[in-house]
Amino acid sequence: MSDDTIRLVTIGRLLRRRRRFLAVLAVVGALVGYGASVLYPPRYTASASVLLPGQWEQRELLTQVEIAASSAVVDRAAAKLGWDGVSGTALRDRVSAKAADGNIIEISGTADTPERAQQLSDRVAQQFVAFAARIAGGTADPGAAAGPEDLRKKVAETNRRITELARAADPGRTVESVQVRTSLEKLRTALQEAVKKLDEADPATGKAGMVVMGPAARPTGAVPPTRMQLIVAGALLFFLLAVVGHLAAARMNRRLRTEPEIAAALGSTLLGTVDVPDEGRTHRPEGQDRRARVRRLLGVGTRWDAPASQRFADEAGRRVHYRRVCARLRDRLPAPRRVLVVVPDGDEIALRAAGQLVAEAADDPSPTPTSGGNPVLRVVEVSVTRPMVPDRDTESGALIVLSAGSWTAEELAGVAAACADARHEVVGTVVAGTVRSRPARSAGRPPENAALSFAVRGPATGGSG
Q1: Which three-class secondary structure state does DSSP give residue 136?
Q2: Can you give the residue ranges of every domain in the chain?
Q3: pLDDT tens-place string over residues 272-287
Q4: Side-chain half-sphere exposure of 350, counting CA atoms within 13 A
Q5: Over the stretch 169-196, which tens digit does the pLDDT of each residue have?
Q6: Which of 19, 231, 286, 362 is the most exposed place for a label (fewest CB within 10 A)?
Q7: Is-contact 234 29, C-beta < 8 A?
Q8: Contact assessment for residue 96 and residue 45, using Cβ atoms and an 8 Å cutoff
Q9: Where is this chain compositionally biased, Low complexity type (predicted)?
Q10: Pairing of strands 44-51, 211-212
Q11: How far apart are CA 339 and CA 426, in angstroms?
């Protein structure tokens, strides 16, 4: 795992180099969000308010809230609505109630259309008021709730009977008749006082008469998450997952990126770094070429966390680097000799750089006063999984060319071990990179296919696996 700290510049480089790939993933996430909105259609919520007159304690209001959303009320509302295939059980999850300020209970109903949401909240509010009126006396028994009303009727009937008895008595002719009328008036007064005390003691007297405060307003927008919210959330989720995935992969990547690390893994000396144009293409089979075009289209053809490509003014600047590498290689050899250029299989950047290096070495083979001329280079590709290097023939050393950020220390150690097993001394290492600019071609530059003609493939004898 890399110990490099993830900084804003790292995230900026990721967004810049993977912008097309991230944009494609964001579009895919938006399509997934749209599909989720189709599977889960939008819902609409309407609210109706019920006023509870009188003085109510907080716990009593909470009790009424529970009653408003209870199955007894919702089942009655479902029966009144009569929606096909929608029962009270299905509506219980769509109805909610809460206590607002001022002894007001807000009943909310959720449905798939604004019209149905309005009908549901209105019907539940009406059934709640009716059900609360039935249990206002403290019981849900209709017979017990009707008891006080029957008593009042009997008291009224008794008052009428008292009036009839008072009229039938001899009005004031005898002392007995006066006493009878006085007793009847006292009985009437006692009955009226008893009814008054009954009304005062009845809790339904001050807490009955709940009122629905008008019909529910028809909703104009869907409740979250809406279709647009799902689309945006899907795009954002895929984008963030892609960014986090890239950063996590970079943190866990064990491929060597710097020249000192590569040279240390190979146990050799770094002779220099060279560059090849980023626009160059190599011949691949049709299937691989198609995949390569897709990777270039998405912008994933190169590693996003690799160092930024350098820009040279022209091709002469690149060729100077190749000549300097050839000069350092020549200085490490006492006489013109043949050198085996080892390139990891699949490293196209290194293969192109090796071809250019071969062309530069062959461009000036004449000896100089201080040396016997450039060595003759031969390129071979070696698999990093089972490295096999040709046995030593006329070569007197091996030069390893590879690109940065492509291979782990274990893979490079295996390549170096294969060179040693084939009796090749690793005389140096060259790290290849790319340039994004496309400078004008120099007249003295050899054709690029001529550089690649020095590369050889095929089975090799000797080496270590």
Answers
A1: coil
A2: 8-40+225-252, 44-138, 143-202, 259-456
A3: 999 888 754 444 555 5
A4: 23
A5: 666 567 677 777 777 778 778 777 777 7
A6: 286
A7: yes
A8: no
A9: 438-447
A10: antiparallel
A11: 10
Bridge partner list, 382: 344
Residues sharing a CB contact under 8 Å with residue 322, sequence separation 6 or more, in sequence order = 274, 356, 357, 360
Degrees to nearest 5, angle at CA 161 with 181 and 188: 55
As given in the structure block, the two tokens for residue 335 are: 């006489």
Residues with Cβ within 8 Å of residue 246, at least 6 apart in sequence = 14, 18, 304
| Structure-token pair, residue 226 | 């809406």
pLDDT of residue 381: 93
CB-neighbour burial class of residue 102 (10 A; exposed 0-12, middle 13-18, buried 19+)? exposed
Give me 293's structure tokens. Answer: 């075009």
DSSP letters, 342-410, are EEETT-HHHHHHHHHHHHHHHH--S--SSSS-PPEEEEEEE-SSS---PPPSSEEEEEEEEETTS-BHH
Distance from C-alpha of 386 to C-alpha of 392, rounded to nearest angstrom:
18
| pLDDT for residue 309 | 54
CATH code for the part of the protein at 44-138: 3.30.70
CB-CB contact of 461 with 334 (8 Å): no
